[in-house]
Amino acid sequence: MELPAVNLKAIILVHWLLTVWGCMNHMLPASYAWGNFSVLAVGIWAIVQRDSLDAIMMFLTGLLLTVLTDIIHVSIFYPPNKYLTGEKRFSIGMAIFSLLLKPLSCYLVYRMYRERGGEYTFNLGVTCASQDRSTYEPIDQQDAPPQWPDSSKTAQHPY
C-alpha cells in the first residue's frame, strides 16, 4: 500500500500548529520551542529551494533529532497528576501528538528526499580506504615525464 503524496507545506504547518499548542502553558522549557521552531525554519528553506538536497536532508536530520529531544523534554518536564489542569493536559497532549507524528513525517520527508535525487546511503563526508582494486593503476609501470627540459631541443620564443 503506497502512501499518498503529501506536500511539505502541510507537514510544516501541522508541526508548527502542534508545537505552538505544545508551548502554550510554559510547561516545557524554551529549548523545546527553539529546537522545534528552528527545524521548521529549515523546513521552510526546503520549501523555498525545491532542488536542494542539502535543505531537505537537513530538515530530515532535524526532525530525527527533535524526536529524541522531544522524548527527553516530555519525560523530564511532565508534571505530576495533581498539578495537571485542563490547559496543561491539552498542551502536553499536543506535544506528545507532535512527537507521535514525527516518525511518519520523517518517512514522508525521506520520500521527498529520494524524489529530489537523494541516495539511500548517507554520506557524512568521511573518506575511508576500500579494498576495491578495479580502478587501480600502478604508478611504477608508467613512463614518468622528465623533470628537466631536454637541452637538445630549442625553446620556442613566444613572439
How is this structure best described in words?
The protein has helices spanning 8-22, 30-48, 53-77, 86-115. 19% of the residues are buried. It has 159 residues and is mainly alpha-helical. The chain contains 4 helices and no strands. The longest helix has 30 residues, at 86-115. It is elongated. Helix 1 runs antiparallel to helix 4, helix 2 (30-48) packs antiparallel against helix 3 (53-77) and helix 3 (53-77) runs antiparallel to helix 4.
General form: elongated
| DSSP strand count | 0
- Give a quick account of the main beta sheet: strands, pairing sense, barrel closure: none
From the N-terminal CA to the C-terminal CA, the straight-line distance is 74 Å
**Secondary-structure element pattern, one letter each:** HHHH
Helix content: 55-70%
| Low-confidence region ranges | none
Beta-sheet strand percentage?
under 5%
Average predicted confidence as pLDDT: 83
Rg, nearest Å: 27 Å
What structural class do helix, strand and pairing data support?
mainly alpha
Number of helices: 4
